[in-house]
Amino acid sequence: MILRMRWPFFAMAVLLLLLGGGGAAAYYTGFFNFHKITVVPEKYADQAANLGSELGRNIFTVPFDEALVYFISDQMVQSARLDYELPDAVSIKIEEAQPLALMIARDGQSIFALDERGRIIPREQSSGAYRLPIITGLKDCSLYRIPDDKKLRLIIPQLLRIRDDHDDFYRSISSIDLSSPDSVKVQMDGMSFQLIMYAGDMYESIKRLRQFLLDINPDLKDVVSLDMRSEKQIIAMRKKCQKQG
Predict the structure, then answer these.
(1) How far, in Å, are 14, 103, 106, 133, 136 from residue 109 at the CA level?
(2) In this predicted structure, what is the pLDDT of residue 54?
(3) How much is the pTM?
(4) Do 110 and 87 fall within a single domain?
């Protein structure tokens, strides 16, 4: 009996044999044994200490997913990503919760930060932390929880869009007052007047304001507020003239 094999099939069989043999050799010779882990930022390196017991084990059998869950359980960690650096190392990159705005507590003295999910987080001590928009009119809430305010849940995604698309205007927002029941009042650096808008329309209102200021260049002398709540017009409220006696 003569067994004939076509050349492509023979080549594939040889290739699979080499790959299988190479993989087995790497597995049993320790080529892929786990020897090093890098954590960024470095301050989280101690939290990876539990992986020390896995050193010397085949890197593909180490339960790194459990380590990632441990990192994510930290209240200040927003995400954790694992990258294999073959043949014998891995790196874990931690993304921390970033402040999007500041919040003044009801006592008028305590200042906290709000992250990109609207949670209250500790305020950074750096000077740059004070250049964030300050949100007032919120109820006090414990750390790492989201204040119970419907307008805040609308404001957070709006602020993210403004920061991404109109960063200069985002950095110019000095305060956002949520105390009004049906609207928000925004104060911007360099503007002596308030902006009145709906919480859910903040992005579009800032976009319209940008166009209004740059394209029309209006005379806003003696203006105390711009009402942006109408879709088709911007209403300017001016100071009332005092009657002469």
Answers:
(1) 74, 10, 8, 16, 12
(2) 85
(3) 0.75
(4) no
Range of the domain at 186: 99-238
State which of 96, 127, 151 marks the end of a domain.
Answer: 96
pLDDT tens string 102-126: 998 777 778 899 999 999 998 875 4
5 pLDDT above the threshold of 50: no
The answer to whether residues 117 and 219 belong to one domain is yes
Q: Which amino acid is at 37?
A: I
Shared domain for 37 and 135, answered yes or no, is no
Residues 6+ apart with CB under 8 A from 234: 208, 209, 212, 226, 227, 228
Tell me the two tokens of residue 126: 């750096």
Number of domains within the chain? 2
In this prediction, residue 8 carries a pLDDT of: 58
- Cβ-contact 163, 194 below 8 angstroms: no
Please report whether residue 8 resides in a domain: no
Q: Report the distance separating Cα 84 and Cα 91, nearest Å.
A: 7
Query: Could you read off the pLDDT of 24-43 as tens digits, one per residue?
Result: 555 556 788 999 999 999 88
Q: Which residues pair with 82 in a beta bridge?
A: 92
